[in-house]
Please model this.
Amino acid sequence: MQPSHPLDLIKHTLASGLPSLSVEQRQAEARLLGESVFKLPYSALLSKPADFFATERFQSAWANLHSLLEDRINNRVPLQYLLGEAWFLGRPFSVSPAVLIPRPETELLVEKGLELIKSSTETAMNTPFRWADVGTGSGCIAISLALALQEQYPNLPFQGVATDNSANALAVASSNAEKFNLTTEAIHFALADVLEPVSSDEKSPQSLDLIISNPPYISPALAITLSAEVLHHEPASALFAENEGFEVVERLIEQAVVALNPDGFLLMEVGSGMAKTVAGWKLTQSNFAVLSVWSDYSGHERFLTLQRKKKV
Ligand SMILES: C[S@@+](CC[C@H](N)C(=O)[O-])C[C@H]1O[C@@H](n2cnc3c(N)ncnc32)[C@H](O)[C@@H]1O
Model:
């Protein structure tokens, strides 16, 4: 019998086991699995004939590949958890089932944060500039922001705090920060409920210049609409919030009023159809100027830029 080429085997196995994957998704997963298991770049995988992989050298790689494919297909484990890695803004973040897999649209939140900081540096900027990422998960937002700030403003002092109410998520985030050589001065990781204790720190009330957050916002009633990969493998506390998905968002806004400096910014990602609702709340209207409600790559309005009013 002809030996199989690993890329063909992966594509065929995924096509029959997960027919809902598009051709592009199948190709992407085959590429990532192949590279990871055979420890070869894609170009090398493509150029080698099937015989090359039939040697003794790859025996354990094949066993690993079969077991990963079984987990992917039978248990619907997301590929990123199988590989322990997800890419965000051009960097490989370590991920485990303790954290949400970073999504591409969340990159827009970091880009918007950097735009706001750029406009602050062009006017008057508080130094040190203090920012917080609420619900940090893998740390993808906080770490990307801190690294971009270090690169773009090497002479300006920034202080970041990244909160989560999951100690396991914070452990992943801290190890990612270490992986990217960030010190605890650049980002302090804090176990906290939303922004507590940051917002109740009497010594530094209203001291943050920017709060950025991708909080949990899915209504538990929508659980049946989620894929098995998301519903059965990503942490429920990262996905769901009571009060039709608004519970954490509402507390975030309440706490941001106390924690932000006058003129400070609150940048948030929410679910489809939620951004306009949040923008119209009395709580939002009386404390913030709604600078913009903006859309994700699919045109869904999912992001808010709020600026705290001077007098609240
Ligand atoms: C949607 S995930 C976002 C993770 C990461 N920031 C990202 O964008 O990929 C929400 C995160 O908020 C955390 N979280 C949920 N409720 C929280 C709360 N009350 N206080 C702090 N963090 C919370 C979850 O543990 C999870 O890590």
Q: What stands out?
A: The longest strand covers residues 260-269. DSSP finds 13 helices and nine strands in the chain.
